[in-house]
Amino acid sequence: MNIVILDAMTLGGSSLEEIKKLGKLTIYDTTNKKEVVKRAKDADVILTNKVVLDSVILKQLPNLKLICVTATGMNNIDLESAKALKIDVKNVADYSTNAVAQHTFMFALNLLGQLKHYDKFVKKGKWAKNEIFCHINKSNEIYELDNKTWGIIGLGNIGAKVGNIAKSFGANVIYYSTSGKNNSKEFKQEKNLENLIKDSDIISIHAPLNAQTKNLITKKELNLLKTNAILLNMGRGGIVNESDLYKCIKKKDFYFACDVLEVEPMTENHPFLDKKIQHKLLLTPHIAWAYKESRARLLEGVEKNIKDFISKK
């Protein structure tokens, strides 16, 4: 079988040796829209993370039998057209749950402990000039997670994992289901999003982007945050209105961390690059899913999807 990977760079150099055993493998680091048809015209199987495969493109790939999405989300694939053309589409679910949960706590604990500030203080040689053995800055107060209220928006597998970890730290966990379908006996459900925001010391978002979650957090919700609250977007860009957040965080004392933005890669001169708010922000470039072990699980899932397809032929 002809197998074509259209955006291998998104896999971060992970080994593709097992995939190579399944057919003739052609690898492209990146592929723009104009290049897709030329590169994939003979493909039986396409692997892609973010390359868009719309109806127009799919109709020009007569040999294509299987699309393996190297991710969970499949919004870059025209699923209805694929079905009509009898092209199977497979994703990999739950491979990144541990990684995203860990990344969430990296953000939260960093901000609770003001790690950026104190690391900078030491590395600038200021600790060496201290009159006493420690340095405590009231402007950069540090807090325990124990007995804080952790609000979760979107209680899927990742949200539930985060809730259980937060609970082990002694936090009081509450959640709001964006779909209205998730119920838990472990945590208290808030039917009203505004109540969750007002009551929480830390809020983490683990929801998909859809009609219900687009601009879920705007100026109205941000103004309800407690002083020094921590807001973490670990779901998708577009759930938090970035323009509103920028305007609010300049005036109000709270912290924001995110791994996702509405437009990726980040646009030049994005408001989050304003030096005046850097002490209130932690930003990473959409890597919460991409820990080495989770990428290995992802490729194992892709390999299984291809093998399952072959076995049904």
Strand line-up across the major sheet = 8-7-6-9-10-11-12
Low-confidence stretches: none
- CATH architecture designation of the largest domain: 3-Layer(aba) Sandwich
> Could you give the distance between the termini?
12 Å
Helix content: 25-40%
Overall description:
The protein is an alpha/beta fold and 313 residues long. The protein contains 11 helices and 12 strands. Strands 8-7-6-9-10-11-12 form a 7-stranded parallel beta sheet, sandwiched between helices.
Descriptive labels:
313 residues, alpha/beta, Rossmann fold, 2 domains, 7-stranded parallel beta sheet, 5-stranded parallel beta sheet, 11 helices
Please describe the topology of this protein.
Layout: E1 2-5, H1 17-20, E2 24-27, H2 36-40, E3 45-48, H3 55-58, E4 66-69, H4 79-84, E5 88-90, H5 97-112, H6 115-123, E6 149-153, H7 157-168, E7 172-176, E8 188-189, H8 193-199, E9 202-205, H9 219-222, E10 230-233, H10 242-251, E11 255-258, E12 281-283, H11 292-312
Parallel strand pairs: 1-2, 1-3, 3-4, 4-5, 6-7, 6-9, 7-8, 9-10, 10-11, 11-12
Helix pairs in contact: 5-7
